[in-house]
Amino acid sequence: MVSPAIALAFIPFLLTLLIRYRHYFLLFYRAVIVRLIQDCLTGIPREERAFQYVITHAIPGDAQHILNTFDQWCYHCEYLSNVGPQKGKILERLIYETAPLNVLELGTYCGYATILMAQVLPLGARLYTVEMDPGNAAIAEKVIRLAGFDEDTVELIVGPSEDIIPHLKDKHGVQKLDFVFMDHWKRFYLRDLQLLEEQDLLQEGTRILADNVLFPGAPHFLQYAKSCGRYRCKVHRTSLEYFRAIRDGMAELCYTKLQ
Ligand SMILES: C[S@@+](CC[C@H](N)C(=O)[O-])C[C@H]1O[C@@H](n2cnc3c(N)ncnc32)[C@H](O)[C@@H]1O
Ligand SMILES: [Mg+2]
Question: Which residues form the signal peptide (predicted)?
């Protein structure tokens, strides 16, 4: 039995913890607790709830309006791990500046970043987006088509990246990639970057933008990118999607054979 004196001594310690990490507790509450409660109450998965909101509030064919509607839901209802509006601007600007013709996204989720990229792609470009969760992929497919992008512009590939990347050339006709957006589980970033290298899918100047390299973080990926000599690497410091108080970053890599 813990004595009341010891229990009392812990209160300031717990309070300090709560105050210092309040943003992370809030994230946990919004992303996990609220989700569990709403899942039980509605019997509908969170991503489907978000889609139902989008389909009833967004203007079909207007990608920017669909993105704004997702953002509204994420700020006012529940949390989704979309790239979000702030980091979305970095992604959008890079796509705009590099005008890539062959783009790969790893981790489609609900299709938020997919339509964000698709709306600034140059004419004739093709975006391949890979999602391993069939439920998320079904929602993304509806979101992508709702935004007005056809299968010639955006191809959604369902399956784990480790199975898909080795067959991008033979099954999907991809020769080289100009731009890769990595936003799947962080522990796969390094493995999949090396898979892209092995499969000879990268070329001089290919840009790779990797999300969440500071939170939750991808330290091995960052270390490799900075030290292997094949990439020029910079980290855009920003904040976590829909949580300004939590620091995060996006790593921008530029592949070069010359270094
Ligand atoms: C953070 S979400 C992606 C968000 C999305 N890029 C956006 O900004 O709208 C991560 C997604 O990656 C998917 N995923 C995780 N590991 C994967 C893998 N190895 N292959 C394909 N998809 C994966 C998850 O199922 C999840 O839907
Ligand atoms: Mg992300």
Answer: none
